[in-house]
Write a structure and sequence with these properties.
The termini are far apart. This protein has 15 helices and 22 strands. 37% of the residues lie in helices and 22% in strands.
C-alpha cells in the first residue's frame, strides 16, 4: 500500500468547503502532469472553486501505460479468485466511507445528497458483482467427440482504459473497473476533468484494498488525454460514456488502431402514457425520471408521448413538478454553458408555440451556481429542438398523438435508442409497446429502466457504438478474450470426421 493517502473529504452538509488538489495516480504514486497545467474545479451549487486538477497529455499517458504494462504482466497470472478479493475489500471500504463518498459526489457534481448516496450505493453493487465473477464467469468445457474435449477460458487483454463523464463520478467508473480488474487487466481511468475527486478516492481505496501498484491508474485531463489513449498502440480496449458525437468519434479513432471499443452516447428517451395508466404512479414516476439528478443523466425522461386523453395525468405531473423545491429536491446544473443551453431550448419551444406549464427559468437555489428548476413544456411538435435534442436538464417535453402506433413511430423515428417506457395497467399494451420500440432498455411503469446486475446496461442505434453491454457479464467479456482449446489424449480405435 502506498504511503501517499488522499485526504478525507470533511463535508457533512451543502456548506462550501475547499478540497485537495488532484494529481495523476500512476504506479502507486500521486504525480504531477508533464505539462504543469491545471484546471480549476467548481462546486456547481456554490459556483466557487473547490480545488484544481492536473491536465495531462500524451507524455503522461505514455508513463501510465508503461507502468500498467509492467503490472499487467504479473496481475494477469494472479488467480482470478485472488484478484476478486480486492473487490471484496473495496466493497467493505466503500461501505465504511459511504457518507464521505456521498458528500464528495454532491459537492463536485451538484447532486442532492440522496441522489449522491444512491449513486455510491449503485457503485458498491457494481463492485459486488465484480467480486462474484469467479463463480459465474468460469470457462466452459465439453467432450465433443470420443476422447476430444473443447474448453474455453477468458484471458486478460493487457492494458485497457475507460473514459467517464461528469454526471456519475463514482458509479460509471465502477461500471468498468471491477470487470476489467477481475479479468486480469491493468486499467487506466480518464475521468471527466469537471469531477476528478471521485476517481482520486477510488484510486486511494483500491490502493488500501491491496491492489498492486500500476494495476490501476488515473490520468486526468481533457481531449489531449483522451486522444492519446485512443492512439496508444499498447492499450487494447477502451470504454467510453458521454455524448454521441464524442462516442462516435472516439469509437472510430480507437478502432483504427485495432482496439476493442465500446462507446455509449446520448439519448432522447420517450415515455409513452396511455389513458389507462395509473395517475399517481405515472405522475410520481415521470417527475422523478425527468428531474432526478437535475435531468443530467442519459436515462432521464425527455419526451412524454401523450396518447389520447391523458390530461388528468399531465395535470398531476405539472402539480408535482411545480411543488419541488430547487436546491432541496433538485440540484444545480453542472456549469453555465449547460444552463444557458437548457434555457435556450426552453425559449425556442415557447417561441414556436409550445406552452410552458411549469417554468424553471430564472429560479435560484441556495447557492450562486447555475440553476434550472423543473420545467414542463406542453404541445411540443416533433420537429422542435425540445423534441429532438438531448436537453440534459430537468425539462419534460410533451407531444400529443392519437394512438399507440403513432407513439411507437415517434419513438422509433429518433436516432437514439437508449431507453423507452410505457405507462399502462394493461399487460397487452405493455407487451405491444415493449416489443416494438427501438430501444435497448425498456420499462413498464418505470421511467428509469436501468438493468440491475447481472443484466447489462446499453442502448441501441446512436446511443451506443460497439458490441454488447458495458455492465454485467457482457462487461466481463468485453475486457477479456476467449481462448478455445481442443484436446485429444485418448487414442481411440474408432475414426470419425474429427480424427
Amino acid at each position: 500500500m502506498s504511503s501517499q493517502v488522499f485526504p478525507a473529504f470533511k463535508a457533512t452538509s451543502y456548506d462550501f468547503v475547499e478540497y485537495a488538489p488532484v494529481k495523476n495516480w500512476i504506479d502507486g504514486q500521486w504525480v504531477a502532469s508533464k505539462s504543469g497545467k491545471t484546471l480549476e474545479i467548481t462546486n456547481p451549487r456554490h459556483g466557487k472553486v473547490m480545488g484544481n486538477v492536473v491536465m495531462s497529455g500524451a507524455d503522461d499517458v505514455n508513463v501510465a501505460v508503461e507502468a500498467a504494462k509492467k503490472a499487467a504482466a504479473t496481475w494477469r497470472h494472479t488467480p482470478i479468485k485472488v484478484r476478486a478479493q480486492v473487490m471484496f475489500k473495496l466493497k467493505e471500504l466503500m461501505e465504511r466511507d459511504l457518507e464521505e463518498l456521498s458528500w464528495l459526489v454532491s459537492h463536485e457534481n451538484g447532486k442532492i445528497i440522496d441522489e449522491a448516496r444512491a449513486e455510491v450505493l449503485k457503485g458498491i453493487e457494481c463492485v459486488e458483482f465484480g467480486a462474484s465473477i469467479p463463480n459465474i464467469g468460469a470457462g466452459d468445457q465439453l467432450e465433443v467427440s470420443r476422447g476430444v474435449t473443447c474448453s474455453q477460458k477468458h484471458e486478460a487483454l493487457g492494458v485497457v482504459a475507460g473514459v467517464t463523464p461528469f454526471n456519475f463520478p463514482i458509479m460509471v467508473p465502477l461500471w468498468m473497473i471491477p470487470q476489467a480488474l477481475v479479468g486480469g487487466n491493468a486499467f487506466i481511468l480518464k475521468p471527466s476533468e469537471q469531477v476528478p475527486f471521485g476517481a482520486a478516492k477510488l484510486a486511494a481505496l483500491l490502493d488500501e484494498a491491496g491492489l498492486p501498484k500500476g494495476v490501476f491508474s488515473v490520468v486526468n485531463g481533457g481531449p489531449d488525454a483522451v486522444n492519446a489513449l485512443a492512439d496508444h498502440p499498447d492499450i487494447k480496449a477502451i470504454a467510453f460514456v458521454g455524448s454521441t458525437p464524442i462516442a462516435k468519434m472516439l469509437y472510430g479513432r480507437g478502432a483504427q488502431t485495432g482496439k476493442s471499443m465500446l462507446c455509449l452516447g446520448g439519448a432522447k428517451n420517450h415515455l409513452i402514457v396511455v389513458p389507462d395508466a395509473d395517475p399517481k404512479i405515472t405522475a410520481d414516476n415521470v417527475v422523478a425520471s425527468f428531474t432526478g439528478c437535475a435531468g443530467q443523466r442519459c436515462m432521464a425522461a425527455a419526451v412524454l408521448v401523450a396518447v389520447g386523453d391523458v390530461d388528468h395525468i399531465i395535470d398531476a405531473i405539472k402539480d408535482k413538478a411545480a411543488a419541488l423545491v430547487i436546491g432541496k429536491d433538485v440540484g444545480p446544473i453542472i456549469n453555465e454553458k449547460s444552463a444557458t443551453r437548457i434555457n435556450g431550448i426552453i425559449n425556442d419551444a415557447e417561441k414556436q408555440g409550445a406552452k410552458i406549464l411549469v417554468d424553471g427559468r430564472g429560479k435560484k437555489g441556495d447557492g450562486a451556481g447555475q440553476w434550472v428548476a423543473p420545467t414542463v413544456i406542453d404541445n411540443v411538435k416533433p420537429g422542435m429542438q425540445a423534441a429532438t435534442d438531448e436537453i440534459f436538464g430537468p425539462v419534460l417535453s410533451i407531444v400529443h398523438v392519437g394512438n399507440v402506433d403513432e407513439a411507437i413511430a415517434l419513438e422509433n423515428a429518433n436516432p437514439y435508442g437508449n431507453a423507452s417506457s410505457v405507462y399502462t395497467t394493461s399487460g397487452a399494451v405493455a407487451e405491444y409497446v415493449t416489443s416494438r420500440v427501438d430501444a435497448g432498455m425498456v420499462g413498464v411503469n418505470i421511467g428509469v429502466p436501468v438493468p440491475r446486475e447481472p443484466f447489462g446496461f446499453g442502448g441501441w442505434n446512436y446511443s451506443k457504438f460497439g458490441h454488447g453491454n458495458i455492465t454485467g457479464m457482457d462487461g466481463f467479456r468485453f475486457w477479456t478474450r476467449p481462448r478455445k482449446i481442443t484436446s485429444k489424449w485418448d487414442v481411440s480405435p474408432d475414426n470419425n470426421w474429427m480424427s
